[in-house]
Amino acid sequence: MSSTRSRKKTPPPAACTDAPAPATEAVDTSLLRTLVGYNARRASLSVIGLFMERMAVYGLKVVEFSVLSLVAHNPGITSRQLCATLNVLPPNMVGLIAALERRGLIERRPHPSDGRAMGVHLTPEGAALTAQAEQTAAQLEQDATARLTATERKTLIRLLQKVYD
Amino acid sequence: MSSTRSRKKTPPPAACTDAPAPATEAVDTSLLRTLVGYNARRASLSVIGLFMERMAVYGLKVVEFSVLSLVAHNPGITSRQLCATLNVLPPNMVGLIAALERRGLIERRPHPSDGRAMGVHLTPEGAALTAQAEQTAAQLEQDATARLTATERKTLIRLLQKVYD
DNA sequence: TATTGTTATACTCTATAACTATA
DNA sequence: TATAGTTATAGAGTATAACAATA
Fold this sequence. Notes:
The structure is a homodimer.
Chain A: H1 36-56, H2 62-73, E1 77-78, H3 79-86, H4 90-102, E2 106-110, E3 118-122, H5 124-144, H6 150-164
Antiparallel strand pairs in A: 1-3, 2-3
Helix pairs in contact in A: 1-5, 2-5, 3-4
The structure holds a DNA duplex.
């Protein structure tokens, strides 16, 4: 979390000193800015960067918040379903779930109808933390998109979903 | 490039066999879908996934395309400027530039006014490849956002820039 | 035979510290 | 002193192959 990444370049207000302001001579990014991929990536890095900062308060990575929130709204969800929903490969979900279980935020119970699977559930502690984190996420939404009106924000989400759905 | 990532889940058309379709029982993602960050990330993964496939034809990674395009429109740009523009840390830009130089796509010349810096320029081969790749990128834009009207596409880009600018 | 969950492992991406040479 | 570029390296994220247990 430092140096280049996700920092709102703040070129000092150019206080008319005699320094030739080596700052960052203007770079032409006009072509890249016509590409949806470039803009979507920059916007997601910006929002998710703020997301990371706010979730760090709870000791959660972004993907861990996503897992907890999905478990909260889908009690008994399987590892396989979490993988498919979040585009995480099964071997990488193992450690993710193990870490949340070690912290006592979730627990795994045998799946009622499928002996191979384990259903994931929130513990009371996990439910409390998730509720808090979801509130933080809702507030963060406002902050991260402060330059958008409520209508613009809804339009943005609708168009993004149209792209990936 | 396989399994989970960026594949447009294609649950076979459910040909009315007697199989109980274990597929992927519906998961409630309604809360995550209210978050700009979640939607922006999924959309960017979707578009950039296609970007990766198309750029692979030229043996280019997405970030390499970005570097070439920036050099094309900013001849003599420095490594430092590329880093700042693309959110890549200086140590990681070294290998990136070295690889493009080894392929004969770019060349570095001493900066005219700053003895520490090197200006990056396209070779004729690099210029030809970049022109082709930029055309591919323009076409890809249409394909990746096929579900959007021209107006919606412009709106989407405008709103994304409003978020990260 | 196919699928869930798992281990082990490799590869890529990203980040930090420290050095050099110029400014 | 500060900056551009570099080296070496550490860490996180993402990928594949292969296995056991169950369907």
